[in-house]
Amino acid sequence: MAPKNDINLDSILHELGEFGKFQRINFFLICIPVTLAAVSAFSYAFAAGPSDYRCRIPECDSNNTNEIEYTPLWISNAVPVKNNKPSFCKRYKPNINDTENVILENECPSILFTKKEITCNTSELVFPNKHTTIANDFDIYCEENQWRLTIVGTLNGFGQFLCLPFTGMISDRYGRKTVLMGSILLSTIVGIGRSFSTNINQYMILEILDTSLGAGAFSTGFILGMELVGPSYRVLACAILSICFALGEILLGVAAWYIYSWRTFLRVVYAPGFILIFYYWLIPESLRWLISKNRISKVQHVLKRMSKINNKHLSDKSLEVLLNAEDKTEESEPIKTVNVWAALKNRTLLFRFINCSVAWIVSNLTYYGLSLNSVAISGNKYINFISVAAAEIPAYILTTALLDRLGRRITLCGSFFIAGVACLSFVVIPKGGYLQIIFIIIGKCAATTAFTAVYIFTTELFPTCVRHSVLGYCSMLSKFAGTLAPHTPLLALIWGPMPLVIFGSIGLIAGFSALFFPETLNTKLPNTIEESVNLSKRRRRQQATG
Questions:
Q1: pTM over 0.85, yes/no
Q2: How far is it, in rounded angstroms, from Cα 417 to Cα 398?
Q3: Secondary structure string (H, E, C) spanning 497-542
Q4: If you ran DSSP here, which 8-state letter would residue 114 be given?
Q5: Which domains does the chain have, with CATH numbers?
Q6: Which residue has the higher pLDDT, 377 or 522?
Q7: Can you tell me the distance from the alpha carbon of 448 to that of 363, in angstroms, rounded to the nearest whole number?
Q8: Are 62 and 263 in contact (CB under 8 A)?
Q9: Confidence of residue 451 (pLDDT cuts 50, 70, 90)
Q10: Are β-strands 81-82 and 90-94 bridged in parallel, bridged antiparallel, or unpaired?
Q11: Cβ atoms of 113 and 77 closer than 8 Å
Protein backbone atom coordinates (compact mmCIF):
# COMPACT_ATOMS: atom_id res chain seq x y z
CA MET A 1 0.00 0.00 0.00
CA ALA A 2 1.23 3.47 -0.80
CA PRO A 3 2.14 5.64 2.11
CA LYS A 4 -0.18 8.43 2.99
CA ASN A 5 0.89 11.65 1.28
CA ASP A 6 1.00 14.88 3.25
CA ILE A 7 -0.52 17.18 0.63
CA ASN A 8 -3.01 19.62 2.13
CA LEU A 9 -4.88 20.72 -0.97
CA ASP A 10 -6.96 23.28 0.92
CA SER A 11 -3.79 25.10 1.99
CA ILE A 12 -2.44 25.02 -1.58
CA LEU A 13 -5.74 26.36 -2.95
CA HIS A 14 -5.58 29.14 -0.38
CA GLU A 15 -2.21 30.16 -1.81
CA LEU A 16 -3.23 29.87 -5.47
CA GLY A 17 -6.77 31.20 -5.04
CA GLU A 18 -9.78 29.22 -3.84
CA PHE A 19 -11.93 30.45 -6.73
CA GLY A 20 -9.49 32.13 -9.08
CA LYS A 21 -9.68 32.57 -12.85
CA PHE A 22 -8.61 28.95 -13.45
CA GLN A 23 -11.42 27.62 -11.25
CA ARG A 24 -13.99 30.03 -12.68
CA ILE A 25 -13.26 28.97 -16.28
CA ASN A 26 -13.44 25.27 -15.47
CA PHE A 27 -16.42 25.73 -13.18
CA PHE A 28 -18.32 27.42 -16.03
CA LEU A 29 -17.53 24.45 -18.28
CA ILE A 30 -18.78 22.04 -15.59
CA CYS A 31 -22.02 24.03 -15.31
CA ILE A 32 -22.93 23.23 -18.94
CA PRO A 33 -23.36 19.44 -18.52
CA VAL A 34 -25.03 20.03 -15.14
CA THR A 35 -27.60 22.19 -16.96
CA LEU A 36 -28.05 19.50 -19.61
CA ALA A 37 -28.63 16.88 -16.88
CA ALA A 38 -32.18 18.25 -16.45
CA VAL A 39 -33.03 16.96 -19.93
CA SER A 40 -32.55 13.31 -19.00
CA ALA A 41 -34.33 13.84 -15.69
CA PHE A 42 -37.49 15.60 -16.89
CA SER A 43 -37.93 15.36 -20.68
CA TYR A 44 -40.36 12.46 -20.25
CA ALA A 45 -42.76 14.76 -18.35
CA PHE A 46 -43.51 16.43 -21.71
CA ALA A 47 -42.71 13.75 -24.29
CA ALA A 48 -44.74 11.13 -22.40
CA GLY A 49 -46.74 13.36 -20.09
CA PRO A 50 -50.53 13.47 -19.72
CA SER A 51 -52.45 15.36 -22.41
CA ASP A 52 -55.87 16.99 -22.34
CA TYR A 53 -58.50 15.99 -24.90
CA ARG A 54 -62.21 15.22 -25.17
CA CYS A 55 -64.70 13.54 -27.47
CA ARG A 56 -65.78 15.40 -30.56
CA ILE A 57 -69.52 16.14 -30.40
CA PRO A 58 -70.84 15.98 -34.00
CA GLU A 59 -74.19 17.38 -32.88
CA CYS A 60 -72.57 20.60 -31.65
CA ASP A 61 -68.94 20.96 -32.79
CA SER A 62 -68.15 22.72 -36.05
CA ASN A 63 -67.38 20.65 -39.14
CA ASN A 64 -64.27 22.80 -39.55
CA THR A 65 -61.68 21.29 -37.18
CA ASN A 66 -59.82 24.61 -36.94
CA GLU A 67 -62.89 26.26 -35.41
CA ILE A 68 -63.59 23.65 -32.73
CA GLU A 69 -63.19 24.89 -29.13
CA TYR A 70 -61.84 22.55 -26.48
CA THR A 71 -64.03 23.90 -23.66
CA PRO A 72 -67.05 25.74 -25.15
CA LEU A 73 -69.75 27.05 -22.81
CA TRP A 74 -71.98 24.05 -23.51
CA ILE A 75 -69.32 21.39 -22.78
CA SER A 76 -70.91 20.16 -19.52
CA ASN A 77 -74.15 19.45 -21.40
CA ALA A 78 -72.45 16.95 -23.71
CA VAL A 79 -69.43 15.63 -21.81
CA PRO A 80 -68.90 14.59 -18.15
CA VAL A 81 -66.71 17.22 -16.42
CA LYS A 82 -64.60 16.47 -13.33
CA ASN A 83 -62.23 18.90 -11.61
CA ASN A 84 -63.00 21.46 -14.34
CA LYS A 85 -61.75 19.08 -17.06
CA PRO A 86 -63.83 17.24 -19.66
CA SER A 87 -63.66 13.46 -19.61
CA PHE A 88 -61.09 12.03 -22.01
CA CYS A 89 -63.16 9.41 -23.81
CA LYS A 90 -66.65 9.65 -22.36
CA ARG A 91 -69.61 11.68 -23.62
CA TYR A 92 -73.35 11.71 -23.02
CA LYS A 93 -75.52 9.62 -25.33
CA PRO A 94 -77.43 11.79 -27.84
CA ASN A 95 -81.15 12.24 -27.46
CA ILE A 96 -82.07 11.55 -31.08
CA ASN A 97 -85.57 13.08 -30.91
CA ASP A 98 -84.22 16.62 -30.29
CA THR A 99 -81.35 17.01 -32.75
CA GLU A 100 -83.22 19.67 -34.71
CA ASN A 101 -82.75 22.08 -31.77
CA VAL A 102 -79.09 22.50 -32.79
CA ILE A 103 -80.12 24.32 -35.97
CA LEU A 104 -82.88 26.29 -34.30
CA GLU A 105 -80.86 27.56 -31.36
CA ASN A 106 -77.30 27.49 -32.78
CA GLU A 107 -76.07 26.08 -29.50
CA CYS A 108 -75.83 22.79 -27.62
CA PRO A 109 -78.58 22.56 -24.99
CA SER A 110 -78.71 19.74 -22.46
CA ILE A 111 -81.97 18.50 -23.94
CA LEU A 112 -79.95 17.01 -26.81
CA PHE A 113 -78.36 14.46 -24.50
CA THR A 114 -79.29 11.87 -21.95
CA LYS A 115 -77.17 11.40 -18.84
CA LYS A 116 -76.02 7.98 -19.97
CA GLU A 117 -72.24 7.92 -20.60
CA ILE A 118 -70.86 6.26 -23.71
CA THR A 119 -67.30 5.84 -25.02
CA CYS A 120 -66.43 7.78 -28.15
CA ASN A 121 -64.15 6.78 -31.02
CA THR A 122 -60.55 7.77 -30.20
CA SER A 123 -60.02 8.74 -33.85
CA GLU A 124 -62.39 11.67 -33.26
CA LEU A 125 -60.89 13.58 -30.34
CA VAL A 126 -60.58 17.32 -29.73
CA PHE A 127 -57.32 18.73 -28.30
CA PRO A 128 -56.76 22.14 -26.65
CA ASN A 129 -53.59 22.84 -28.67
CA LYS A 130 -51.25 21.45 -31.31
CA HIS A 131 -48.83 19.78 -28.89
CA THR A 132 -48.30 16.06 -29.38
CA THR A 133 -46.88 13.38 -27.08
CA ILE A 134 -46.25 9.68 -27.46
CA ALA A 135 -49.95 9.21 -26.62
CA ASN A 136 -50.85 10.67 -30.02
CA ASP A 137 -48.41 8.58 -32.04
CA PHE A 138 -48.85 5.33 -30.10
CA ASP A 139 -52.65 5.63 -29.59
CA ILE A 140 -52.56 5.71 -25.76
CA TYR A 141 -55.90 7.33 -24.93
CA CYS A 142 -58.60 7.25 -22.24
CA GLU A 143 -58.40 7.18 -18.44
CA GLU A 144 -57.87 3.42 -18.19
CA ASN A 145 -54.63 3.70 -20.23
CA GLN A 146 -53.00 6.56 -18.30
CA TRP A 147 -50.85 4.06 -16.37
CA ARG A 148 -49.02 3.29 -19.62
CA LEU A 149 -47.80 6.89 -19.65
CA THR A 150 -46.91 7.05 -15.95
CA ILE A 151 -44.92 3.80 -16.27
CA VAL A 152 -42.49 5.73 -18.49
CA GLY A 153 -41.65 7.95 -15.51
CA THR A 154 -41.20 4.87 -13.34
CA LEU A 155 -38.76 3.43 -15.87
CA ASN A 156 -36.92 6.77 -15.88
CA GLY A 157 -36.48 6.51 -12.12
CA PHE A 158 -35.56 2.81 -12.31
CA GLY A 159 -32.86 3.62 -14.88
CA GLN A 160 -31.37 6.12 -12.42
CA PHE A 161 -31.63 3.49 -9.70
CA LEU A 162 -29.52 1.14 -11.82
CA CYS A 163 -27.04 3.79 -12.92
CA LEU A 164 -26.06 5.82 -9.88
CA PRO A 165 -24.15 3.30 -7.70
CA PHE A 166 -22.08 2.13 -10.68
CA THR A 167 -21.46 5.74 -11.67
CA GLY A 168 -20.09 6.45 -8.22
CA MET A 169 -17.81 3.40 -8.23
CA ILE A 170 -16.53 4.13 -11.76
CA SER A 171 -15.96 7.78 -10.85
CA ASP A 172 -14.03 6.87 -7.68
CA ARG A 173 -11.88 4.40 -9.62
CA TYR A 174 -11.40 5.96 -13.07
CA GLY A 175 -12.01 9.66 -12.48
CA ARG A 176 -14.75 12.30 -12.45
CA LYS A 177 -14.05 13.72 -15.91
CA THR A 178 -14.35 10.32 -17.62
CA VAL A 179 -17.79 9.67 -16.11
CA LEU A 180 -19.06 13.22 -16.78
CA MET A 181 -18.20 13.02 -20.47
CA GLY A 182 -19.45 9.48 -20.90
CA SER A 183 -22.76 10.11 -19.11
CA ILE A 184 -23.79 13.13 -21.18
CA LEU A 185 -22.59 11.75 -24.53
CA LEU A 186 -24.29 8.36 -24.10
CA SER A 187 -27.49 10.02 -22.86
CA THR A 188 -27.44 12.34 -25.87
CA ILE A 189 -27.13 9.49 -28.35
CA VAL A 190 -29.89 7.41 -26.74
CA GLY A 191 -32.14 10.44 -26.16
CA ILE A 192 -32.05 11.41 -29.82
CA GLY A 193 -32.54 7.77 -30.76
CA ARG A 194 -35.68 7.76 -28.58
CA SER A 195 -37.23 10.41 -30.83
CA PHE A 196 -37.29 7.84 -33.66
CA SER A 197 -39.29 5.25 -31.64
CA THR A 198 -42.05 3.53 -33.60
CA ASN A 199 -43.95 1.99 -30.67
CA ILE A 200 -44.35 2.34 -26.91
CA ASN A 201 -42.20 -0.71 -26.07
CA GLN A 202 -39.27 0.66 -28.06
CA TYR A 203 -39.69 4.05 -26.42
CA MET A 204 -39.69 2.54 -22.91
CA ILE A 205 -36.56 0.48 -23.57
CA LEU A 206 -34.71 3.59 -24.76
CA GLU A 207 -36.08 5.61 -21.80
CA ILE A 208 -34.59 3.24 -19.24
CA LEU A 209 -31.37 2.97 -21.27
CA ASP A 210 -31.10 6.78 -21.40
CA THR A 211 -31.21 7.25 -17.64
CA SER A 212 -29.19 4.09 -16.97
CA LEU A 213 -26.32 5.63 -18.93
CA GLY A 214 -26.76 9.34 -18.23
CA ALA A 215 -28.29 9.80 -14.79
CA GLY A 216 -24.89 10.19 -13.12
CA ALA A 217 -24.09 13.44 -14.95
CA PHE A 218 -25.40 15.77 -12.25
CA SER A 219 -23.80 14.00 -9.29
CA THR A 220 -20.48 13.71 -11.17
CA GLY A 221 -20.52 17.36 -12.17
CA PHE A 222 -21.46 18.28 -8.61
CA ILE A 223 -18.55 16.32 -7.12
CA LEU A 224 -16.11 17.66 -9.72
CA GLY A 225 -17.21 21.25 -9.09
CA MET A 226 -17.09 20.89 -5.31
CA GLU A 227 -13.60 19.37 -5.41
CA LEU A 228 -12.38 22.17 -7.68
CA VAL A 229 -12.82 25.06 -5.21
CA GLY A 230 -11.53 25.89 -1.74
CA PRO A 231 -13.49 25.38 1.53
CA SER A 232 -14.89 28.91 1.75
CA TYR A 233 -16.46 28.64 -1.72
CA ARG A 234 -18.04 25.18 -1.41
CA VAL A 235 -21.52 26.44 -0.54
CA LEU A 236 -21.40 29.02 -3.34
CA ALA A 237 -20.28 26.32 -5.77
CA CYS A 238 -23.12 24.09 -4.60
CA ALA A 239 -25.67 26.88 -5.13
CA ILE A 240 -24.37 27.75 -8.62
CA LEU A 241 -24.44 24.11 -9.76
CA SER A 242 -27.96 23.69 -8.41
CA ILE A 243 -29.12 26.90 -10.10
CA CYS A 244 -27.74 25.56 -13.37
CA PHE A 245 -29.91 22.46 -13.00
CA ALA A 246 -32.94 24.70 -12.36
CA LEU A 247 -32.08 26.72 -15.48
CA GLY A 248 -32.01 23.43 -17.35
CA GLU A 249 -35.54 22.72 -16.13
CA ILE A 250 -36.72 26.18 -17.19
CA LEU A 251 -35.18 25.84 -20.66
CA LEU A 252 -36.74 22.39 -20.95
CA GLY A 253 -40.18 23.80 -20.11
CA VAL A 254 -39.78 26.66 -22.59
CA ALA A 255 -38.67 24.25 -25.34
CA ALA A 256 -41.65 21.96 -24.64
CA TRP A 257 -44.01 24.94 -24.77
CA TYR A 258 -42.82 26.22 -28.14
CA ILE A 259 -42.03 22.92 -29.88
CA TYR A 260 -45.26 21.12 -30.70
CA SER A 261 -43.87 17.74 -31.81
CA TRP A 262 -42.45 15.51 -29.08
CA ARG A 263 -39.99 14.04 -31.59
CA THR A 264 -38.57 17.43 -32.56
CA PHE A 265 -38.56 18.45 -28.89
CA LEU A 266 -36.31 15.50 -27.92
CA ARG A 267 -33.89 16.15 -30.78
CA VAL A 268 -33.57 19.85 -29.91
CA VAL A 269 -33.02 19.42 -26.15
CA TYR A 270 -30.57 16.49 -26.43
CA ALA A 271 -28.41 17.77 -29.31
CA PRO A 272 -26.28 20.23 -27.19
CA GLY A 273 -24.81 17.23 -25.35
CA PHE A 274 -22.42 16.58 -28.23
CA ILE A 275 -20.25 19.52 -27.07
CA LEU A 276 -18.94 17.21 -24.29
CA ILE A 277 -16.70 15.60 -26.93
CA PHE A 278 -14.34 18.55 -26.52
CA TYR A 279 -14.17 18.26 -22.71
CA TYR A 280 -11.34 15.75 -22.97
CA TRP A 281 -9.06 18.70 -23.81
CA LEU A 282 -10.93 21.47 -21.97
CA ILE A 283 -11.20 20.49 -18.30
CA PRO A 284 -8.75 18.85 -15.86
CA GLU A 285 -9.39 15.84 -13.65
CA SER A 286 -10.29 16.46 -10.01
CA LEU A 287 -7.17 17.32 -7.99
CA ARG A 288 -8.56 15.58 -4.91
CA TRP A 289 -9.18 12.40 -6.90
CA LEU A 290 -5.64 12.55 -8.39
CA ILE A 291 -4.18 12.97 -4.89
CA SER A 292 -6.27 10.06 -3.56
CA LYS A 293 -4.74 7.93 -6.35
CA ASN A 294 -1.20 9.26 -5.68
CA ARG A 295 -0.90 10.64 -9.21
CA ILE A 296 1.32 13.43 -8.02
CA SER A 297 2.90 14.30 -11.37
CA LYS A 298 -0.55 15.10 -12.79
CA VAL A 299 -1.37 17.09 -9.67
CA GLN A 300 1.76 19.15 -10.24
CA HIS A 301 0.82 19.72 -13.89
CA VAL A 302 -2.68 20.98 -12.99
CA LEU A 303 -1.35 23.18 -10.17
CA LYS A 304 1.22 24.74 -12.52
CA ARG A 305 -1.59 25.66 -14.92
CA MET A 306 -3.62 27.03 -12.04
CA SER A 307 -0.66 29.06 -10.80
CA LYS A 308 -0.10 30.54 -14.25
CA ILE A 309 -3.75 31.39 -15.00
CA ASN A 310 -4.47 32.72 -11.49
CA ASN A 311 -1.17 34.65 -11.53
CA LYS A 312 -0.25 33.23 -8.12
CA HIS A 313 2.87 31.42 -6.93
CA LEU A 314 3.26 28.41 -4.67
CA SER A 315 5.33 28.83 -1.53
CA ASP A 316 8.60 26.92 -1.18
CA LYS A 317 7.02 24.82 1.56
CA SER A 318 4.16 23.68 -0.70
CA LEU A 319 6.57 22.92 -3.54
CA GLU A 320 8.69 20.83 -1.20
CA VAL A 321 5.62 18.86 -0.04
CA LEU A 322 4.68 18.14 -3.67
CA LEU A 323 8.20 17.00 -4.58
CA ASN A 324 8.45 14.78 -1.51
CA ALA A 325 5.04 13.28 -2.27
CA GLU A 326 6.20 12.47 -5.81
CA ASP A 327 9.32 10.75 -4.48
CA LYS A 328 7.24 8.66 -2.09
CA THR A 329 4.89 7.68 -4.92
CA GLU A 330 7.75 6.46 -7.12
CA GLU A 331 9.09 4.29 -4.30
CA SER A 332 5.72 2.87 -3.25
CA GLU A 333 3.41 0.15 -4.41
CA PRO A 334 0.20 1.10 -6.23
CA ILE A 335 -2.40 2.52 -3.91
CA LYS A 336 -5.04 0.11 -2.65
CA THR A 337 -8.62 1.02 -3.53
CA VAL A 338 -10.95 1.35 -0.53
CA ASN A 339 -14.28 -0.40 -1.07
CA VAL A 340 -17.34 1.56 0.05
CA TRP A 341 -18.71 -1.42 1.96
CA ALA A 342 -15.43 -1.80 3.83
CA ALA A 343 -15.72 1.85 4.86
CA LEU A 344 -19.30 1.30 6.05
CA LYS A 345 -18.16 -1.41 8.46
CA ASN A 346 -17.41 1.54 10.72
CA ARG A 347 -20.59 2.00 12.80
CA THR A 348 -20.38 5.80 12.73
CA LEU A 349 -20.20 5.92 8.93
CA LEU A 350 -22.90 3.25 8.61
CA PHE A 351 -25.31 5.28 10.77
CA ARG A 352 -24.56 8.39 8.70
CA PHE A 353 -25.14 6.45 5.50
CA ILE A 354 -28.56 5.25 6.70
CA ASN A 355 -29.54 8.73 7.84
CA CYS A 356 -28.30 10.25 4.57
CA SER A 357 -30.35 7.66 2.65
CA VAL A 358 -33.51 8.69 4.52
CA ALA A 359 -32.84 12.36 3.74
CA TRP A 360 -32.12 11.56 0.10
CA ILE A 361 -35.28 9.46 -0.31
CA VAL A 362 -37.55 12.11 1.16
CA SER A 363 -35.93 15.09 -0.59
CA ASN A 364 -35.97 13.28 -3.93
CA LEU A 365 -39.58 12.11 -3.68
CA THR A 366 -40.76 15.54 -2.56
CA TYR A 367 -38.64 17.47 -5.08
CA TYR A 368 -39.61 15.44 -8.14
CA GLY A 369 -43.14 14.75 -6.92
CA LEU A 370 -43.92 18.46 -6.57
CA SER A 371 -42.50 19.12 -10.04
CA LEU A 372 -44.65 16.41 -11.63
CA ASN A 373 -47.77 17.38 -9.66
CA SER A 374 -47.33 20.98 -10.81
CA VAL A 375 -47.96 19.71 -14.35
CA ALA A 376 -51.07 17.84 -13.22
CA ILE A 377 -52.82 20.71 -11.41
CA SER A 378 -55.12 23.13 -13.19
CA GLY A 379 -53.81 25.80 -15.54
CA ASN A 380 -51.14 25.88 -18.24
CA LYS A 381 -48.86 22.92 -17.47
CA TYR A 382 -45.88 24.61 -19.16
CA ILE A 383 -46.24 27.80 -17.11
CA ASN A 384 -46.75 25.73 -13.95
CA PHE A 385 -43.61 23.66 -14.60
CA ILE A 386 -41.51 26.73 -15.46
CA SER A 387 -42.81 28.64 -12.41
CA VAL A 388 -42.04 25.81 -10.02
CA ALA A 389 -38.57 25.39 -11.58
CA ALA A 390 -37.92 29.15 -11.39
CA ALA A 391 -38.87 29.07 -7.71
CA GLU A 392 -35.78 26.94 -7.14
CA ILE A 393 -33.40 29.79 -8.04
CA PRO A 394 -34.22 32.11 -5.08
CA ALA A 395 -34.31 28.97 -2.92
CA TYR A 396 -30.72 28.14 -3.93
CA ILE A 397 -29.61 31.72 -3.21
CA LEU A 398 -31.32 31.60 0.19
CA THR A 399 -29.77 28.20 0.84
CA THR A 400 -26.30 29.67 0.34
CA ALA A 401 -26.89 32.16 3.15
CA LEU A 402 -28.60 29.65 5.44
CA LEU A 403 -25.93 26.97 5.10
CA ASP A 404 -23.16 29.42 6.01
CA ARG A 405 -25.05 31.10 8.86
CA LEU A 406 -27.26 28.44 10.42
CA GLY A 407 -25.12 25.48 9.40
CA ARG A 408 -25.95 22.34 7.44
CA ARG A 409 -27.96 20.48 10.09
CA ILE A 410 -30.44 23.21 11.06
CA THR A 411 -30.94 24.21 7.41
CA LEU A 412 -31.74 20.64 6.40
CA CYS A 413 -34.05 20.05 9.34
CA GLY A 414 -35.92 23.36 8.90
CA SER A 415 -36.40 22.96 5.15
CA PHE A 416 -37.93 19.50 5.62
CA PHE A 417 -40.37 20.86 8.20
CA ILE A 418 -41.41 23.82 5.99
CA ALA A 419 -41.88 21.55 2.96
CA GLY A 420 -43.97 19.19 5.09
CA VAL A 421 -46.26 21.92 6.41
CA ALA A 422 -46.69 23.47 2.93
CA CYS A 423 -47.73 20.11 1.46
CA LEU A 424 -50.08 19.24 4.33
CA SER A 425 -51.84 22.61 3.90
CA PHE A 426 -53.45 21.23 0.72
CA VAL A 427 -55.97 19.48 2.96
CA VAL A 428 -57.61 22.87 3.67
CA ILE A 429 -56.73 24.86 0.52
CA PRO A 430 -59.68 25.21 -1.91
CA LYS A 431 -59.27 23.62 -5.34
CA GLY A 432 -58.34 25.79 -8.31
CA GLY A 433 -56.97 29.31 -8.37
CA TYR A 434 -53.49 30.58 -7.67
CA LEU A 435 -53.39 29.50 -4.01
CA GLN A 436 -52.53 25.93 -4.97
CA ILE A 437 -49.60 26.90 -7.17
CA ILE A 438 -48.36 29.36 -4.49
CA PHE A 439 -48.20 26.61 -1.85
CA ILE A 440 -46.63 24.18 -4.32
CA ILE A 441 -43.97 26.82 -4.98
CA ILE A 442 -43.38 27.24 -1.21
CA GLY A 443 -43.08 23.47 -0.86
CA LYS A 444 -40.76 23.28 -3.88
CA CYS A 445 -38.54 26.06 -2.46
CA ALA A 446 -38.21 24.19 0.84
CA ALA A 447 -37.68 20.86 -0.95
CA THR A 448 -35.02 22.52 -3.10
CA THR A 449 -33.22 23.78 0.00
CA ALA A 450 -33.33 20.27 1.48
CA PHE A 451 -32.14 18.73 -1.79
CA THR A 452 -29.18 21.14 -1.93
CA ALA A 453 -28.32 20.72 1.74
CA VAL A 454 -28.34 16.91 1.55
CA TYR A 455 -26.06 16.99 -1.50
CA ILE A 456 -23.44 19.18 0.20
CA PHE A 457 -23.89 17.35 3.52
CA THR A 458 -23.20 13.96 1.95
CA THR A 459 -20.16 15.39 0.16
CA GLU A 460 -18.72 16.70 3.44
CA LEU A 461 -19.54 13.69 5.64
CA PHE A 462 -17.59 11.00 3.76
CA PRO A 463 -13.92 10.62 2.70
CA THR A 464 -12.58 11.23 -0.82
CA CYS A 465 -11.89 7.52 -1.48
CA VAL A 466 -15.61 6.62 -1.26
CA ARG A 467 -17.31 10.03 -1.57
CA HIS A 468 -18.88 9.53 -4.98
CA SER A 469 -19.72 5.89 -4.26
CA VAL A 470 -21.68 6.87 -1.13
CA LEU A 471 -23.33 9.70 -3.04
CA GLY A 472 -24.23 7.20 -5.75
CA TYR A 473 -25.74 4.65 -3.36
CA CYS A 474 -27.75 7.28 -1.47
CA SER A 475 -28.99 8.66 -4.76
CA MET A 476 -29.79 5.13 -5.97
CA LEU A 477 -32.02 4.49 -2.95
CA SER A 478 -33.72 7.84 -3.44
CA LYS A 479 -34.34 7.05 -7.12
CA PHE A 480 -35.92 3.74 -6.16
CA ALA A 481 -38.41 5.70 -4.06
CA GLY A 482 -38.54 8.30 -6.84
CA THR A 483 -39.98 5.70 -9.22
CA LEU A 484 -43.20 6.25 -7.27
CA ALA A 485 -43.26 9.99 -8.01
CA PRO A 486 -44.71 9.71 -11.57
CA HIS A 487 -47.65 7.71 -10.16
CA THR A 488 -48.52 10.16 -7.37
CA PRO A 489 -50.74 12.36 -9.60
CA LEU A 490 -52.96 9.28 -10.05
CA LEU A 491 -53.60 9.26 -6.27
CA ALA A 492 -55.39 12.58 -6.71
CA LEU A 493 -58.13 10.64 -8.53
CA ILE A 494 -58.87 8.94 -5.18
CA TRP A 495 -58.53 12.06 -3.01
CA GLY A 496 -57.25 15.36 -4.40
CA PRO A 497 -54.68 16.27 -1.67
CA MET A 498 -53.43 12.68 -1.17
CA PRO A 499 -50.08 13.04 -3.03
CA LEU A 500 -49.14 16.18 -1.12
CA VAL A 501 -50.28 14.77 2.24
CA ILE A 502 -47.85 11.88 1.67
CA PHE A 503 -45.02 14.30 0.81
CA GLY A 504 -45.81 16.42 3.89
CA SER A 505 -45.85 13.49 6.33
CA ILE A 506 -42.52 12.02 5.25
CA GLY A 507 -41.02 15.54 5.22
CA LEU A 508 -41.73 15.93 8.93
CA ILE A 509 -40.15 12.53 9.66
CA ALA A 510 -36.99 13.40 7.69
CA GLY A 511 -36.75 16.77 9.45
CA PHE A 512 -36.53 15.03 12.81
CA SER A 513 -33.92 12.49 11.66
CA ALA A 514 -31.72 15.30 10.26
CA LEU A 515 -31.02 16.47 13.83
CA PHE A 516 -28.72 13.44 14.32
CA PHE A 517 -26.15 14.57 11.72
CA PRO A 518 -22.83 16.11 12.87
CA GLU A 519 -22.35 19.72 11.80
CA THR A 520 -19.78 20.18 8.99
CA LEU A 521 -19.77 23.97 8.64
CA ASN A 522 -16.22 25.30 8.01
CA THR A 523 -14.61 21.85 8.17
CA LYS A 524 -12.24 20.67 5.43
CA LEU A 525 -13.31 17.80 3.21
CA PRO A 526 -12.14 14.54 4.86
CA ASN A 527 -9.64 12.55 2.81
CA THR A 528 -9.52 9.43 5.01
CA ILE A 529 -12.00 7.31 6.94
CA GLU A 530 -10.41 8.42 10.21
CA GLU A 531 -10.87 12.10 9.35
CA SER A 532 -14.49 11.43 8.41
CA VAL A 533 -15.29 9.57 11.63
CA ASN A 534 -13.73 12.34 13.73
CA LEU A 535 -15.65 15.21 12.08
CA SER A 536 -17.47 16.15 15.29
CA LYS A 537 -14.22 16.21 17.30
CA ARG A 538 -12.47 18.33 14.65
CA ARG A 539 -15.38 20.79 14.62
CA ARG A 540 -15.23 21.14 18.42
CA ARG A 541 -11.45 21.72 18.24
CA GLN A 542 -11.94 24.38 15.57
CA GLN A 543 -14.57 26.14 17.68
CA ALA A 544 -12.33 25.99 20.74
CA THR A 545 -9.34 27.48 18.91
CA GLY A 546 -11.27 29.85 16.63
A1: no
A2: 16
A3: CHHHHHHHHHHHHHHHHHHHCCCCCCCCCCCCHHHHHCHHHHHHHH
A4: E
A5: 1-50+142-337 (1.20.1250.20), 54-130 (no CATH), 339-546 (1.20.1250.20)
A6: 522
A7: 8
A8: no
A9: confident
A10: unpaired
A11: yes
